[in-house]
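Students often ask what a holo structure prediction actually looks like on paper. The answer is less mysterious than it sounds. You provide the chain, you provide the ligand, and the output is a string of discrete structure tokens encoding the 3D arrangement of the protein together with protoporphyrin IX containing FE.
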Amino acid sequence: MDPQVDPHAEAGTYPDLRVQLDAQRAECPVVRHADGSVMLLNHFDVASAALDPETFSSAVSAHRALPNSLDGAEHRAYRDLIDTYLTDDEVAAQEPQARDHATAIVAALPRGVTVRTVLDIGTPFAVRTQSTWLGWPREIEDELVQWVADNHAATRSGDRARMAAVAERFDAIIRSLLEPRRSGEIDDVTSRLMRDTVDGRPLEDAEIVSILRNWTAGDLGSLAASVGVIVHHLATDVALQSHLRGLVAAGRTQDFEDAIEEILRIDDPFVSNRRITTRDTEVRGESIAVGTRVILNWTAANRDPEVFEEPDSFNPAEHAAANLVFGIGPHVCPGRALTLMELRVIIWALLEGTTAIGMSHERGPVRELAPGSGWARVPIVLDPHQIAG
Ligand code: HEM
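The corresponding structure tokens follow.
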């Protein structure tokens, strides 16, 4: 598929998953699917399950994903290793390169005409900053952009064979990056990982591929989708845009990141993660048998009116403590600081490089299709008063 083509963008209206989840949660917060799986929608239930890994195990499939599918001490061992790559210092060291990519992308965008937020800003920014972080060559970036688009289409199709083929292609890309690093002459995050150890032994190739897959495969799409969600909010809410412009002018980076996390709470594009029960249990009086697949729906939990009185209101100070965008418990996202830095840098560059961001009148925005959420298409105009001649 051509990554430049927005797959379901041409005609029709697409449902907003949030509306559906809000209605479902109000009616029945523990949803039983035809395949026997159970979906949790309430904030309390989702957080409680994430905080109880002994009952809600992450070993949901035969496929071993590091560290996502592990539990207990085994999970902790890999998680300790992974956390060393994503400390505040490591993230701070990446900020200059992220800023360079953001500035270059924003400078190259046309003014006064329609720009596609996810395709022209979110995806190239995510791919370039993640590639630079990992030490991957420029030539690989086009392949990764294409891969993000194909992965997205395969996930939406629900076709398992197609998803497996796309995952296999990603593994091949990563393996091709390991070869030139075996001689020890290249020093970057990828080669550092190749020299790293877990439980006192070197990581195997399959483990390195799995870790790198989890740092990139899902997250490139999530980062790009997050840019779409944030820019849509800014382009449709003049007061919020003006508030964020004020934070830029005052150099208030922490408040800016808090604002980003709050916008993602209102419209969380990273919808869910799975667990499997290790024993018979109960949620809200509903019995759940051992071996049941349980879906923790972060998007729904983040809009639970029992916790966020007005779920659509922007109130970072009040809502931050209960925000579940990056999860909770032993599997809480280790990439949170990196993600927030990257999103801050690209949105900051967009605001600093423009005087106004408006929605395009030519084409409307289009919601993402389930199982995704957020926006598939956010057509905007930078500096709308500058109509291109
Ligand atoms: C908008 C971007 C992102 C969002 C919304 C997000 C969200 C999440 C959430 C909700 C979880 C919890 C999963 C669970 O409980 O099963 C998670 C886990 C994880 N995330 Fe992120 N993430 C993002 C970006 C990233 C990035 C950039 C990286 C890496 C560089 C990353 C690496 C991981 C890893 C490795 C895990 C598994 C942790 C474990 O199992 O212990 N994420 N993420």
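The CA atoms of residues 98 and 335 lie 15 Å apart.
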